[in-house]
Automatic annotation (TrEMBL):
Keywords: Kinase, Membrane, Transferase, Transmembrane, Transmembrane helix, Two-component regulatory system
Species this chain originates from: Cryobacterium cheniae
Domain Signal transduction histidine kinase subgroup 3 dimerisation and phosphoacceptor: 322-375
Stated name of the protein: Uncharacterized protein
Gene Ontology molecular-function annotations: phosphorelay sensor kinase activity; protein dimerization activity
Length: 505
């Protein structure tokens, strides 16, 4: 189990806080919880890899069907649909590229820079380079109109491969980040000028006159360089898919999680283009559908990345506001209460109201400090850390010996954690103020599927009927918080034997 040995917290004269880990949590011998964390991590990694595995299976199934099911027609002639898919894919690439460039500006990672440049090149190749060459005129069909988009697509695939292999390394500081957005444009211009200069000497990459009349059979045709270039792009995407999938298993990154399966479909799309060059015809083929599937996965990843980003922004804003409120309480209300308490000591000791005022100030200070700590606490703090911190504070504040015995495997949500801490603080305060306790034992355990929090003290105790029938707000508040868990609240006390406050849920 995850139970740790008891911890003793003493008064300020002898108090020694337990050592803290680098993350700020108490260093407990909670090795029993380590296998649980390891299993959770392995499960999360496996879940992130399933998407990439599924994409590989889809691509393999489609490609295998092409090769071994010649009786099935896998495409149809539709120039309009072909143009629509090209435009949609290019627009998605532009959208994702803008998102990735924003990531690069925020984090300065080389991976984001290379990925941005690769997506821009893929978008440029699909946004009308072929049609641009047709508009210019004077170009032999099947030459510049194919070689130019092909060169840009291969360059984009290589940049995405480089991004996958770059991991999370930072880009060089000497690079001017915003000017790098022009690098893909410069590359497109350079390739265009080079091919335009030698356009008369360019071989025919694919003869439009050899376009098939049916999509029933695999068609391996085109210039060898064309086929090799498509194969090189496919290999680049295959390697990038594996690399991105491996990284997504180690990093909590929504976009990275979807890059692996997207690259897998992109790789099989290029492989299908080798088998049937529908990219340069009016045919809508499986390669086009796989390519669109690649961009749809990128779009899903971008949407989830945007959602994660804004959720983090909202969380950061809420935490900043909570910290501001905590500072206001600490510098305002708590200081005023401390001043009132200090001034109350000037009241003669034989005046009963003086004692009541001091006790009321103590309770108000406890409530205000608890509110400050609740506002400054993050929601992911484990229950054990919160209990240990509260024990140190209570021990130092009241000058008592406080023993803590916890089962580290017990977890609760943030609302339950807040309620349990308020019950613990109120119970310890009652033990000190009403029971005159010098020692308190806090125990958190689980048995039979039910969890139990017990706060026992060595004070003089009190009569249970009197303690539970009074209208004191502290007792009523503890009962209400326990029932809201939902759970039960019980007090066992004797006039000369101390008291035990127990919460079960």
């Amino acid at each position: 189990m995850g139970t740790t040995g008891p911890r003793n917290f003493r008064s300020p004269e002898t108090f020694a806080a337990p050592p803290l880990s680098p993350a700020g949590h108490p260093q407990d011998d909670s090795r029993g919880t380590e296998p649980d964390r390891r299993v959770h991590t392995l499960g999360a990694r496996a879940g992130r890899s399933r998407l990439t595995i599924a994409a590989w299976l889809v691509g393999l199934t489609v490609t295998s069907a092409l090769l071994w099911s010649p009786a099935v027609v896998f495409g149809f002639r539709n120039p309009s649909a072909h143009l629509v898919l090209d435009s949609v894919d290019a627009c998605v690439a532009v959208l994702v590229a803008s998102l990735v460039f924003g990531r690069f500006l925020r984090h300065g990672r080389l991976q984001d820079l290379l990925l941005f440049q690769g997506l821009v090149l893929l978008a440029a190749a699909g946004l009308g380079l072929t049609y641009l060459t047709e508009v210019l005129g004077g170009i032999r069909a099947g030459t510049l109109d194919i070689w130019l988009p092909l060169a840009i697509r291969v360059a984009g695939a290589l940049l995405i491969l480089a991004a996958a292999l770059a991991h999370a390394r930072p880009a060089k500081r000497m690079l001017r980040r915003r000017l790098l957005a022009l690098a893909p444009v410069a590359l497109v211009a350079a390739v265009y000028l080079a091919l335009w200069t030698g356009r008369d000497r360019l071989p025919v990459a694919f003869d439009p006159g050899s376009a098939p009349v049916s999509a029933q059979n695999v068609l391996l045709t085109g210039h060898p360089v064309l086929l090799l270039a498509q194969g090189a792009a496919a290999v680049s995407f295959f390697i990038a898919s594996v690399a991105f999938a491996s990284q997504s298993a180690k990093r909590d990154d929504e976009l990275l999680r979807w890059l692996g399966p997207a690259c897998a479909l992109g790789a099989f799309a290029r492989l299908n283009y080798v088998l049937f060059p529908s990219l340069y015809t009016d045919w809508l083929y499986t390669g086009d559908l796989l390519r669109t599937g690649c961009y749809l996965l990128l779009l899903v990843g971008a949407a989830r990345e945007i959602r994660t980003y804004w959720r983090a922004q909202v969380t950061a804003a809420v935490l900043d506001d909570r910290r501001r409120l905590a500072r206001e309480l600490h510098d305002g209300v708590i200081q005023e209460l401390a001043y009132i308490r200090a001034e109350s000591h000037a009241i003669p000791v034989d005046v009963a109201s003086g004692i009541r005022i001091v006790n009321a100030c103590d309770r108000a200070l406890d409530e205000a400090r608890a509110a400050v700590q609740a506002l400054g606490r993050t929601s992911d703090e484990p229950l054990s850390f919160t209990v240990h911190r509260a024990a140190r504070e209570l021990s130092a504040r009241y000058g008592i010996d406080l023993r803590v015995d916890l089962d580290e495997a017990i977890t609760v949500d943030s609302e339950q954690q807040h309620a349990l801490m308020r019950i613990t603080r109120e119970a310890v305060s009652n033990a000190v103020h009403h029971g005159k306790a010098r020692g308190v034992h806090i125990r958190l355990s689980e048995a039979g599927g039910r969890r139990r929090l017990a706060i026992a003290d060595d004070g003089v105790g009190f009569d249970v009927p009197v303690g539970t029938d009074t209208t004191g707000y502290g007792m009523v508040s503890m009962q209400a918080r326990a029932r809201a868990l939902p759970g039960t609240f019980n007090v066992e006390a004797r006039p000369a034997g101390g008291s035990v406050v127990t919460v079960r849920w």
